[in-house]
Amino acid sequence: MAQKFDLVVIGAGPGGYVAAIRAAQLGLKTACVERERAGGICLNWGCIPTKALLKSADAMRTVSHAADYGITIEGKVSVNWPQVIKRSRDVSDKLVGGVEHLFKKYGVEHIKGVATLTGRGKMEVKTADSTLTFESSRILIASGARARPLPGIVPDGERIITYREAMVLPERPESVVVIGAGAIGCEFADFWSAFGAEVTIVEAAPRMVPVEDEEVSEALARAFKKKGIKVNVGCKVSSVKVQGNKVTTTFENTAGKSQTVTSDRLLLAAGVQANTEGMGLEGMGVQLDRGFIKIDRTTYQTSSPGIYAVGDCAGPPMLAHKASAEALACVELMAGHKHPGVNYDVIPGCTYCEPEIASVGKTEQQAKDAGIEVSVGRFPFSANGKALGAGRSDGFIKVLINKKDHGRIIGVHAIGYGVTDLVAEMSLAMTSEATAYDILAAIHPHPTLSEAMMEAVAAALGESVHT
């Protein structure tokens, strides 16, 4: 006998679990099917545990430069690598437990298994010891994405690894090649470098973090090179060979010059692909685009009636907060509530290496391509008292204002200490259509990092006092 629900969610990541909990809060009888642990990649293998690892890297750098702060450490500083990894896993476990608690609190039926659509509003779920059948008029796909392999480079989980294996390496690598200079590649490169590994980055695009503003990319490249990280952009990998406990990587630049690097590990961080195979989507008439589920971005419905999709499986940007925002909008609309929808033009993006990167809105080049005349304001952290006191004076904040639209903010791009937290102010401003003048009218406390945001806005308006 099939179990009947108002909504079945497939996937318990930041899109799926948020959708399931909110739907239950709104009175829908809801089930959430997840083949692994609650929390998805974000809580288990992505956003959360990597931040814990990066905090350990930050602690290592602080200790290594203790003398700069007037503190002398006698003897050699040692690293307990298993404890570094354990701390990261403990942080993840705590949040996963929190999601499972919320499922129970709000009455979400949480099933660990693999779901397959078998007909209109029907599915089978294979668990460890049985096969269940469900019926629901609404099915929400939130199955996420996984690391995308490159042609001829197959991860073996030992020498050629993805972010999953990188998260729990049993020992600190002496040397690593990282293919891809996006958020994942840069975060792991910075983490390993902090613990003394020799790191080489290979990126096919002409610059690091290619989705970011060009000035930010250049600043990050300088910061990484200063740390001793070897940065190779505009390069294509031609071969990867595993021999014993070493990996040999050969790559070429645009001029055809070849270079070979031998390392302990090779990290594949060259993008992701959607988890859409083997779910029965094709048989239900769900249309895909390059493997991602096509949706109506106002209702989140797919091409098949009654089937919805949110998050990474529904296409970029691949961000946990974007998945959660889509999930809330989707289920509130399902329940008959009004929702403003997701404003895809003002979704902030963050990279948590050191220095951090944060951005929202258009880059300067995108504004130029759109024919928008902008005023550009910049403020360096080297002139911010809080950043100087913390010993974190690298980086800047850059604000773009539409010259012909009454101080409308169209883009913010930042690199430096704490910018992943600072960007929320400008995300709120742009979402609520506050202007640059509104930002200046708000009194920013002193001394704080937030003053740098205010000063960049003032510079864009030609009213800066401190530049």
Give a structural overview.
- With 467 residues, the protein is α/β, with parallel strands linked by helices.
- It folds into three domains: 3-147 and 273-344, FAD/NAD(P)-binding domain, CATH 3.50.50.60; 160-270, FAD/NAD(P)-binding domain, CATH 3.50.50; 355-460, Enolase-like, domain 1, CATH 3.30.390.
- It has helices at 16-25, 40-45, 47-64, 81-106, 163-167, 183-194, 214-226, 320-334, 364-369, 385-389, 419-431, 436-441, 450-460, and strands at 3-5, 7-10, 30-34, 109-112, 114-119, 122-126, 131-136, 139-141, 145-147, 160-161, 175-179, 198-203, 230-233, 235-243, 246-253, 258-263, 265-268, 272-274, 288-289, 292-293, 307-309, 349-351, 356-361, 374-380, 395-402, 409-416.
- The strands form seven sheets. A five-stranded parallel sheet has the order 4-3-2-8-21, with helices on one face. A five-stranded parallel sheet has the order 10-17-11-12-13. It has a five-stranded antiparallel sheet with strand order 22-23-26-25-24, with helices on both faces.
